[in-house]
Amino acid sequence: MQETINKILQAINECKDPIKDFQAREKRDAILLNIGKELIDLPREKVEGYARNEDESSALHWFYTRFIYAKNKSRPIKKEN
């Protein structure tokens, strides 16, 4: 899991100016979207628990909110028979 967290942080850090650098933002978002799909069933505490400092905590919180939480809200509810 730490390797996945490192990929998330690396993708976020490589996109220095997401407002002005559209291509870097698109690349970052594509990477984070794919990782978010892999982690969609994990709780926020598990993902954010890997942060080693305040900056990483903030980055992982942003990632979870944008790429996991928002996607979970739009998923259809599974009905049990």
Structure report:
- This protein is mainly α and 81 residues long.
- It has 4 helices and no strands.
- Helix 1 packs across helix 4 and helix 2 crosses helix 4.
- The longest helix has 21 residues.
- It is globular.
- The mean pLDDT is 89.
Outline of this structure?
Helix content is 69%, strand content 0%. The chain is an all-alpha fold. The N and C termini lie far apart (33 Å).
Structural class: mainly alpha
Proportion of strand residues: under 5%
Shape: globular
Low-confidence stretches: none
Keyword list:
single chain, 81 residues, mainly alpha, 0% strand
What secondary-structure arrangement, pairings included, does this model have?
Elements: H1 2-14, H2 22-38, H3 44-48, H4 54-74
